[in-house]
TrEMBL record:
Residues 70-164 form the Rhodanese domain. This is Rhodanese-related sulfurtransferase. SUPFAM superfamilies: Rhodanese/Cell cycle control phosphatase (SSF52821). CDD domains: RHOD. Keywords: Transferase. It holds the Pfam family Rhodanese. InterPro entries: GlpE_sulfurtransferase (IPR050229), Rhodanese-like_dom (IPR001763), Rhodanese-like_dom_sf (IPR036873). Signal peptide: none annotated.
Length: 167
């Protein structure tokens, strides 16, 4: 009796797995089964089957980012939600949350020339918002866009200066 129950349960589990993988395979919004999971190469991503993360724009070395911030070589954009930005962000970073990109783009155009060097970041290497924001900037004609793929978490871990917006 127990053997029959275990066999039935195994058939149900296998059937569910086959159904799930089949649906994922044919669905245009399915999740790619193979992604980039090695954090040393930049953002961690199991990208959708229709898109990919452009790692050629990544800067993973926080010391290089620190120098850029100190020298103000690039306009730094924090794409995290404003509430999180206000709790702490890279020095001189401007808040432009990804979720309000369409509403904020005219303001961004007024502040930053399309040929000016820009660097965007979000929370961490697991966050893809900075890459999506960078791609949108490139699609809107910005020519020199980089991503700090380690994001705010790596900046904090390195003990670099953090600004806060006191309200």
């Amino acid at each position: 009796m127990i053997r029959k129950d275990l066999t039935g349960a195994l058939i149900i589990v296998l059937g569910a797995l086959v159904t799930a993988f089949s649906y994922n395979y044919v669905s245009p919004s399915g999740i790619a089964l193979f992604g980039q999971w090695e954090t040393s190469k930049g953002v961690v991503s199991a990208v959708s089957k229709t898109g990919s993360v452009n790692n050629s724009i990544d800067i993973t070395n926080s010391d290089i980012i620190w120098q850029m911030v100190q020298k103000k070589e690039r306009t730094v954009l924090d794409v995290r939600p404003s509430e999180i930005y206000n709790q702490g962000h890279l020095p001189h970073a401007l808040s432009f949350p990804l979720m309000t990109f369409d509403d904020d783009f005219p303001e961004l155009l007024n502040l930053i020339n399309r040929s000016s060097p820009v660097m965007v970041y979000c929370s961490s290497v697991a966050c893809t918002d900075s890459h999506e924001f960078a791609e949108r900037l490139k699609n809107m004609g910005y020519t020199d866009v980089k991503v700090f793929s380690g994001g705010f978490r790596l900046w904090q871990e390195k003990g670099y200066e953090i600004e806060k917006n006191e309200k």
